[in-house]
Amino acid sequence: MRLRRKPWIDEAIREYDSFVYLQPQEGLKGRWREVFDNPTAPLWVELGTGKGNFISRLADIHREVNFIGIEVQLGVLYYAAKKCAAAELTNVRLLRFDAAFLETLFAPGEVDRFFINFCDPWPKKRHAKRRLTYRGFLDRYARLLAADGEIHFKSDNAGLFDFTLEEFNARHWPLSEVTYDLHGSDILNEAMTEYEAKFSGLGQPIFHCVAAKPA
Ligand code: SAM
Asked: CB-based contacts of 122: which residues, under 8 Å, 6+ apart?
């Protein structure tokens, strides 16, 4: 999702600076819980938050959880911020940040759950290392997750989904809730993303799995 750059967003997003962080926050590494009202709550992190349908909905349902949404594009982060503000969510922080550098942001064991929803498939084989579920990324997530941490993954892309299952298997992440038709299954799907609504609206199946941090 590449949006045409909208210069007014640079200014407009400042309205949300109480919960949107535009600069890297290395100083908060290992201390993210302290920025929330409830510092003992679990921390769930979405990578590639987009326009925020998913995080704003899930954080509304789970007020007992702290959420961080990570998105590299300011142009979409603005819309995510708008949704979180409209829902008066105090349990969400949004970061303009590149997920490739997560280890500068979080300390080992700091995150309880990652969500990766409809990440860019990078279909060319030579770009496989850029996929957010490439094994190099999985190893990083494993270091940042708590012992009982999980990754929840959704995609519309069959090639990316099969690749992701292979990568999880290669790194010995136990898998559950694996389905090639999330909406036709009885797996709980509490919040839809923008891409999910779009592709399922076109009649396409949604692929999903949960991977547990390897022992
Ligand atoms: N998750 C949303 C959804 O399901 O509707 C958006 C999906 S869109 C295909 C992928 C999103 O991930 C884009 O908004 C893109 O800017 C963001 N993204 C891609 N690579 C990223 C990275 N390395 N770090 C943070 N965000 C990234």
From this structure: 128, 130, 131
